[in-house]
């Protein structure tokens, strides 16, 4: 795989759960004690009379090194979070600034009752009459929703549209779903001024169209917004806000009693290896493709940067690392609406053991104390450092063949905001490529005198 290549990530790559790394507290405490002792002297690691107890004149020898050819593979992996693992459905439209982004949500009702009770008996009969169909949505409150620099955007009207996006195609055929967002499949709409949008709203749906879906026993709806301004409306997903649901009134045959029916969002998919698909986001129009020679983080659909390191074994196993950092050079992204909006770029380690599959390794990640995020704006440039000193002891406990030395960068607002960050890859000119800067003590004897 060529360095810097954009690799698509699909749900089929996921086969195992997240694996937990082992912990050996004694070894970590010993290493940390050296780091604290050496760092107590000064920023340039000089010892002597300034700290005679921690750093005597015959103290530690500090070696500073820069590893330029340390990255063996780096790639941009696209397609996060996985469908159904979104947390919220961010309905977005953004115009201007050289880019246009439109997102949508899909909510599945794979089990809609075809019958209702008759009279006071326990018998049921097929639904013959339907009245007043509503889709209930919960708006996430307290979320930054303006993608425009105009302060008046929240007073602009926004329309939430509901489409019939049911198809016979595969659950992962997003092209077939996108094609259903057209005027002929519109089921209903709700228009309100953005600053008056309630936390819970009911969108009335076309009764005749819905009746056919009741007879089929299922309905899948697509949600999107329209407005004259750039904005977003976040809808609570099933995982965090409880099930989304329909509400309609139905009668069976000659029965005079009208029943209230409230089917909740549901999925008939039973893959066993995927998040549930009661609801998920899709991208109708995403951010522009990243240029060559860069690693992209964020954007829509969301991307992660996969960086595999080849650290010399002596630096992992035989020395005490005082400081270490993965140093990247940020390439500015300018000309977009949000190019000055600051957000966190998080560094994680991959915990995908025993395999080199880039997509899966970029998914199975965990944070490590000390491997901090950096807050950046897409338009920023220059060097960005991600600390590795606390990560190397974890790698020391597991062989590289079992646990490759992989750093994964992702956006703190992954899948919820279009901000995208670019860092030069291993295909860029030598002066811009990723590197590791490390300071270490060649040997420390922890034994008692």
Number of domains: 2
Q: Beta-strand percentage?
A: 35-45%
> What is the gyration radius calculated from CA atoms?
27 Å
Unreliable runs: 9-58, 144-151
Q: Give the helix level as a range of percent.
A: 10-25%
Count of helices?
7
Number of strand segments: 25
* Terminal CA distance: 51 Å
Q: What's the mean pLDDT score?
A: 82
**Major sheet: size, sense and barrel closure?**
7 strands, mixed
Structural class: mainly beta
How would you describe this structure to a colleague?
It is a single chain. The chain has 449 residues and is mainly beta. The chain folds into two domains: 6-81 and 288-441; 88-277. The protein has seven helices and 25 strands. Strands 1, 3, 17, 19, 20, 21 and 23 form a seven-stranded mixed sheet that branches. Strand 13 (245-252) and strand 14 (259-261) form a beta hairpin. The longest helix has 15 residues, at 25-39. The chain is elongated, with a radius of gyration of 27 Å. The two termini are 51 Å apart. 40% of the residues are buried. Mean pLDDT is 82; it is low at 9-58 and 144-151.
């Amino acid at each position: 795989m060529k360095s810097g290549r954009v690799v698509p990530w699909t749900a089929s790559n996921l086969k195992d759960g997240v694996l937990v790394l082992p912990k050996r507290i004694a070894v970590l405490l010993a290493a940390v004690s050296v780091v604290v002792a050496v760092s107590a002297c000064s920023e340039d690691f000089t010892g002597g009379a300034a700290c005679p107890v921690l750093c005597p004149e015959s103290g530690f020898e500090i070696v500073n090194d820069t590893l330029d050819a340390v990255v063996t593979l780096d790639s941009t992996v696209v397609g996060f979070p996985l469908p159904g693992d979104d947390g919220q459905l961010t309905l977005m439209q953004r115009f201007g600034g050289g880019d246009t982004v439109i997102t949508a949500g899909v909510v599945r009702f794979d089990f809609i009752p075809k019958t209702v009770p008759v009279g006071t008996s326990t018998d049921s009969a097929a639904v013959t009459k339907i009245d007043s169909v509503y889709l209930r949505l919960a708006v996430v409150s307290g979320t930054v929703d303006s993608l425009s620099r105009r302060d008046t955007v929240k007073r602009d009207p926004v329309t939430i549209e509901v489409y019939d996006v049911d198809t016979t195609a595969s659950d992962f055929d997003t092209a077939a779903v996108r094609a259903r967002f057209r005027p002929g499949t519109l089921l209903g709409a709700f228009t309100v001024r953005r600053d008056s949008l309630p936390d819970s709203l009911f969108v009335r749906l076309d009764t005749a169209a819905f009746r056919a879906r009741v007879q089929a026993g299922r309905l899948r709806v697509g949600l999107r917004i329209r407005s004259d301004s750039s904005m977003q409306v976040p809808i609570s997903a099933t995982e965090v806000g409880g099930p989304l649901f329909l509400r309609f009134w139905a009668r069976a045959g000659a029965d005079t009693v009208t029943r209230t029916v409230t089917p909740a969002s549901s999925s008939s998919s039973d893959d066993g290896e995927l998040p549930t698909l009661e609801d998920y986001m899709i991208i109708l129009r995403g951010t522009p493709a990243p240029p060559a020679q860069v690693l992209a983080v964020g954007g829509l659909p969301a991307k992660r940067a996969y960086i595999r390191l080849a650290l010399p074994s002596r630096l992992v196993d035989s020395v005490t690392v005082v400081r270490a950092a993965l140093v990247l050079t940020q390439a500015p992204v300018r000309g977009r609406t949000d190019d000055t909006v600051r957000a966190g770029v998080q560094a994680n380690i991959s915990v995908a053991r025993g395999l080199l599959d880039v997509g899966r390794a970029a998914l199975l990640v965990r944070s490590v104390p000390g491997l901090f995020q950096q807050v950046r704006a897409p338009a920023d440039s220059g060097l960005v450092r991600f600390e590795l000193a606390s990560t190397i002891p974890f790698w020391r406990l597991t062989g590289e063949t079992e646990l490759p030395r992989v750093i994964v960068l992702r956006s703190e607002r992954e899948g919820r905001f279009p901000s995208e960050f670019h860092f030069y890859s291993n295909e860029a000119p030598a002066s811009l490529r990723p590197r590791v800067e490390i300071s270490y003590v060649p040997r420390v004897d922890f034994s008692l005198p």
